[in-house]
Amino acid sequence: MSISCFVPTMRYQVAFVFSVLGCLCFLTALRFPFVLGIEQFNIGIWANKSGKVGNFSWPAGASTLVLTTEVVPRFPFILSEEHLTNFNKSPPFSIERTVGFMGRTSGFCDPSNVSCGSNKPVVRVNLDGWAAAEFNLGTYSCPLSTCLLRKEANSEYDVLLTSMPPRRPLRNLKKMNKRRHVELSLESSRNHPDILNPVSYSENGIDLVVSFRPPVFSSAVQWLPTSYVNAEPDEFLNVAQSHNSSLWMRFEERLKGMLVMISNCDDKNVHRVKISRQIAKIFSPVYSLGRCFSKMHTDFPAILQKCMTLPRRSAMWDAPKECMLHHVMFSFSLENSFEDNYVTEKLWQPLKMGSIPIYSTNSVPSNRKFLPHPDAALFVEDFASLEILASYMLSISKNKTLWFKHAMAWRTLPVANLSRDFLMALNLSLVTLPCRVCDWWLIDTQQKLVVPKKKAAQGDTKQFPPKDSFLKKCARDILHRVRFPILMPIIDKKFGIDAIFVVHYKLLKHRKIAMEHQIRSVFGSSASAIWIEDLDKNELSDEDIACVSDRRVQNQYIKRATHKGEDSLTLKHMAIFSFLDSKNMSNALILEDDARFFQSDWLTNSSQWQSVLKELPFDYDLVMLSAYGNFARRGKKISENLFLSQQSRVSSMYLISRKGSLNMLRTLPIVGPFDFQINYATGHGIPRGIPPAHVFDVKVFWAEPAMSDQHDATGLAGTVKIKK
């Protein structure tokens, strides 16, 4: 990533100076208090110390396209009248797709709005280095926190977000209470080899590295993965038939040329200069900006000159470039360095704006995985010579079918047919970095393993579970036998959940049919759940049961040993929790296959579900949504629809957070049927002498009235006995 401003060719230097002055006046007129903003991140959230990259497997959460559980406001942006005159193209600047960069701040909210971040802990983030020039200052309403970004070097803070290079020495900064130091590292290690110096991380006082490159050399530093994407997913995927949308320039309206922007002309970048010049010998016109092409350019059409008058914040918040990409058919997009996963705005911006990238992966062919589809770019190495590549570009410029194949066809595909790594990159963009950092801080500083002070029975020396590891290796191996989809189904973010899981016994096929119908009725015709069908009771061995069960505690707690069917059900739930944590999801709706929905409206503001979401504290673990028979409401009343019960009810439908998933995993081994396992987490009804669960601040709520019960599709009653 380069943060230096581009330098136009000599002919346009004077115009460029006036453009800069015009931008300043323009921003003053808008009175828009933003500071430069870098690319962006998604709310996948973080990978921890064990985050490892072999072939670069992005860590969890990446394929889920839910960015936030809240409605994301966008800033209004209006071009002046002079920008809109004398243009015959429609739209002249692709207003929504170029200058919309002003609003690329998922979760940003108006501080004057009293509901902005209400009832959430405030996390103060101080920005330092060039990071301070890349983010909008202000308040963000995040899933777990209210995130306050500011540039105040000497003020109190919770997070200090710095950028590298250059690296600021942090070791001598006094770290008080829960302060954390975060480093944003987006440059290529080939251009900046000091990035790979392990001494410079943990020993320099850095707690979290934000990068496309995991700090595999330093296990003491946490890693938050990011891509270079500087846009919301819907800017790539919003319109299924996007080639017919007014937001996209059609074939007839595209300038049949190539945009080249290279200002770094040193030896490390000689490959880009030579290749682009060779292509230009056959293909024209070439619209060039930057120092490397002072003698190679075509006079810019008026539309591109007008694009250059738009305000430019940085290399990645670049409205002039995006506007030009919107109008030009090809973009010369080679990176200045080749490194695993180093895919910058040079690729993402043309993909977003509908320009066909001319790209190369050279020594790192694995980077092709980030394309949405193999035809979405032209790779230099795929052609026998640059002359053949240039000739093919000429053919595309004259053939609408060929153009559509490379520029638009992939946009018409279902999301499930696009590259998994492309979706991951959209999900881990820089848009939501403020929220991800703030929510990480909240978890990292507050969700610590606290062993309850309750003493075990006299003479009981067994640790339950081990203090330093809440999952034994054999238990992890069993849970990992459950197969999960590579690409997560997309759930409308307005429902406030990252995914829907259904625990299912494969022999009861009629239940699956009935549940699929219910899910479509409530969440939309295209909604789908992740079905957990592995670890049926016949698939569990005696060795498996011995690994995950504690018969001694079961005999004390429920006065018997659990059955294999009960263990199967509990392990399926636990496998979901392990997956939810590994994918860094915020939450999930868990259903058993005999759950019956009482309500079909989960979306409108007047619905009980939206009321529960609105009233739910940020640090919840579970919300029990289902009941059976005469379960009476109990616990502390939070609101008309929410009670802090601190006990289970019926597990056929419940909402669980990532915090809740970790706490439930810490209750292993199995001490009873799954409902009892939840009570074990809260300590409800646990007889004396049973070691407490090693959990932290568990909070279990009941939704009132219940939103579900247990009911078999054949009309059979549920499996929970009615209390008398």
Can I get a quick summary?
26% of the residues lie in helices and 14% in strands. By secondary structure, the chain is α/β, with parallel strands linked by helices. The chain starts with 12 loop residues before the first helix and ends in a 14-residue tail after the last strand.
Question: Would you mind describing this structure in some detail?
Answer:
This protein is of the alpha/beta class. It is built from 20 helices and 22 strands. The chain has an 8-stranded mixed sheet. The model is unreliable at 1-105, 111-115, 239-247, 447-469 and 717-724 (pLDDT under 50).
Features:
single chain, 724 residues, alpha/beta, 8-stranded mixed β-sheet, 7-stranded mixed β-sheet, 20 helices
List the helices and strands and how they pair.
Blueprint: H1 13-30, H2 81-84, H3 95-98, E1 122-127, E2 138-141, E3 146-150, E4 159-164, E5 180-185, E6 208-211, E7 222-225, H4 234-237, E8 255-261, H5 270-280, E9 286-289, H6 302-307, H7 319-327, E10 328-332, H8 345-353, E11 356-359, E12 378-379, H9 386-398, H10 400-407, H11 420-427, H12 433-446, H13 473-479, E13 500-503, H14 509-523, E14 530-532, H15 542-548, H16 551-557, H17 564-582, E15 587-592, E16 595-597, H18 608-615, E17 622-626, E18 636-639, E19 642-644, E20 650-657, H19 658-665, H20 674-682, E21 700-703, E22 708-710
Parallel strand pairs: 1-3, 1-4, 4-5, 5-6, 6-7, 8-9, 8-10, 10-11, 11-12, 13-14, 13-15, 17-21
Antiparallel strand pairs: 2-3, 15-20, 16-22, 17-20, 18-19, 19-21
Helix pairs in contact: 5-9, 9-10, 17-19
